[in-house]
Design goal:
With about 300 residues, this protein is an alpha/beta fold. Helices cover about 30% and strands about 20% of the residues. It has 2 domains: about 30-95 and about 140-305, Aldolase class I (TIM Barrel, Alpha-Beta Barrel), CATH 3.20.20.70; about 95-130, no CATH class. Bound molecules: iron/sulfur cluster.
């Protein structure tokens, strides 16, 4: 018997469900998906890597600055079976048919027509639409391609283990992006943890009604340690808004073992390029002094604060 947290409860996480499997009865609870798309990883040690993103909808926290409220504060989406998710990941990675230029197809595949997205819709520079077709059109096997399971909080999705196993069987590299409040041993390649500091607590948003629960649940040191101890690779990515956040980071790190400074990523909070730049300087200085890594928000720089990027 496996007790899990429901992504579909009124608080999207407080109520626990039990997934039951008996010889006579099998309750299949799929994964609620808010969006899937092919883009560039913008954060952490794999920033810059083309990746398919699977965004689970539903979260057990309510960060005040959450940049995906459609997967947390107001979760959207439908329940998808694991097989359908894997098929969509593969479809997003399909190479363009030989002989088709990149630019026109890429632009028309994703834009205003509402057709499903395939290549990222960013326009190519003039004249580069058909460069090196033999390279660009080469087959895109799933082996080694990157899939990012994000949210929301993917760890509270009932079928997350089944999804990871199915993706692993296809040879994908799997990153799971989590606030690390819930642990399950999963077949993943990178545990990208983002433990939440007090700067995330929504004391005023939505009348402050989620502040107490958020504050109570936002940090779970034993869970973070389990990820560190059992994951093939991990990173601790902190969203930093002000210098005093560093005291909280130090306090948390002092309670953890088996980590190196290079495992710690400091990322500026913000969805506006000017805000990110205003914080980059002093956060970068801290990284230089402490041996931490600076995490960009590359997707904001490249595409702006938009869905599907
Ligand atoms: S944990 Fe992530 S998805 Fe959930 S509210 Fe915070 S930022 Fe949003």
């Amino acid at each position: 018997m496996l007790t899990i947290v429901s992504p579909h409860s009124p608080f999207n996480g407080v109520v626990a469900l039990t997934r039951r499997k008996t010889p006579s009865r099998c309750i299949i609870i799929p994964v609620r998906i808010s969006e899937m798309f092919y883009s560039i990883q913008g954060e952490g040690k794999l920033a810059g890597v083309p990746s398919v993103f699977v965004r689970a909808s539903g979260c057990n926290l309510r960060c005040v600055w959450c940049d995906t409220p459609y997967a947390s504060w107001e979760p959207e989406g439908d329940d998808w079976a694991v097989e359908r998710i894997v098929a969509e990941v593969e479809r997003l990675l399909l190479p363009l048919p030989a002989g088709e230029g990149w630019g026109e197809r890429a632009l028309s595949a994703a834009g205003a027509t509402g057709e499903p997205k395939r290549p990222h819709p960013s326009p190519l520079p003039e004249g580069e639409g058909t460069m090196r077709p033999s390279t660009i059109m080469s087959p895109a096997p799933t082996e080694g391609k990157h899939v990012v399971l994000t949210g929301g909080e993917p760890m509270i999705m009932p079928d997350i283990a089944e999804l990871c196993a199915a993706l692993r069987s296809k040879g994908f590299h799997i990153t799971i992006e989590t606030a690390a409040t819930v642990f399950r041993k999963l077949p993943i390649d990178l545990a990208s943890m983002s433990p939440k500091l007090s700067n995330s607590t929504p004391y005023e948003r939505d009348g402050g009604r989620f502040a107490v629960a958020h504050e109570k649940n936002r940090l779970n040191v034993p869970v973070i340690q389990q990820f560190i101890d059992t994951s093939p690779d991990f990173q601790l990515k902190f969203v930093v808004a002000k210098p005093s956040d560093l005291d909280e980071i130090d306090d948390l790190l002092s309670q953890l073992s088996n980590w190196q400074p290079a495992d710690v990523q400091l990322m500026p909070e913000g969805t506006d390029i000017d805000v990110l730049r205003s914080r980059a300087g002093w956060i970068g200085e801290v990284c230089k002094r402490r041996g931490f890594r600076y995490s960009p928000r590359l997707h904001i720089e490249m595409f702006g604060n938009k869905r599907g990027t």
